[in-house]
Design goal:
Elements lengths: L1 H21 L25 H13 L4 E7 L4 E8 L6 E8 L6 E2 L1 H14 L3 E6 L2 E2 L1 H10 L2 E4 L1 H10 L4
Parallel strand pairs: 3-5, 4-6, 5-7
Antiparallel strand pairs: 1-2, 2-3
C-alpha cells in the first residue's frame, strides 16, 4: 500500500505545478528600435546636448515650465519644471537618461528617482531614456503611479505625434 502513496503524491504534486504554470505568463517583449542605416538615427539620440534640447521640447508640450536642469553625470540630466494648472499643477521632475548602460534603465535607478520625487515634494516625475527599462523597473513604476516611464520607442512616437521629431 505504501508503494502506491509515493506515485500518487508525485502525480498530485505534478498537477499542482502544471496548474501554477498555466497562471504564469512571461512578460510581453518591449518594442525595439532598429536602424537599417546608422545615418538614419536622429542626431538627438547621438548627441547629449541635442538630447537635452529634445527632452525640453517634449516636456514643454505638456505645459511644463522649465526652471533649471543639471547633468548629474555623463548620462543623466535632471530637470526641474512647474505646471501652473490649478488642481493638477505643481512641481514636476524629469530624469533624462542618455545612452544608459547596457541600453537599459534598472529598478534601482527608477526607485531612486521615485524617492527623489517624493523627497522633493513633486507632484509627478518622468524618466525619458534613449534605451529601455527592465521589467522590474516597469513594475516599480506601475505600483507607485507617481513616475511615468518613456523608453526610446515611446519617446520617438511622442516626438512624431507632437511634430517635433
Amino acid at each position: 500500500m505504501e508503494i502506491f502513496l509515493i506515485p500518487i503524491g508525485a502525480i498530485f504534486l505534478g498537477l499542482v505545478f502544471i496548474f501554477l504554470l498555466k497562471n504564469y505568463s512571461p512578460p510581453p517583449p518591449q518594442e525595439q528600435v532598429v536602424w537599417n542605416n546608422p545615418e538614419d538615427k536622429p542626431v538627438y539620440l547621438l548627441d547629449r546636448s541635442e538630447f537635452r534640447d529634445k527632452c525640453l521640447d517634449f516636456l514643454a508640450k505638456f505645459n511644463l515650465e522649465y526652471r533649471h536642469s543639471i547633468w548629474a553625470n555623463d548620462r543623466e540630466l535632471e530637470i526641474d519644471m512647474f505646471d501652473e494648472t490649478p488642481v493638477v499643477g505643481g512641481k514636476y521632475l524629469a530624469l533624462c537618461i542618455f545612452e544608459p548602460i547596457n541600453r537599459t534603465v534598472d529598478m534601482m535607478t527608477v526607485k531612486g528617482f521615485l524617492d527623489t520625487v517624493k523627497g522633493e515634494g513633486a507632484h509627478r516625475g518622468i524618466i525619458i531614456t534613449t534605451g529601455y527599462f527592465t521589467e522590474e523597473a516597469i513594475q516599480i513604476a506601475s505600483e507607485e503611479d507617481q513616475v511615468e516611464l518613456v523608453n526610446v520607442v515611446s519617446f520617438l512616437d511622442y516626438l512624431k505625434r507632437f511634430d517635433i521629431y
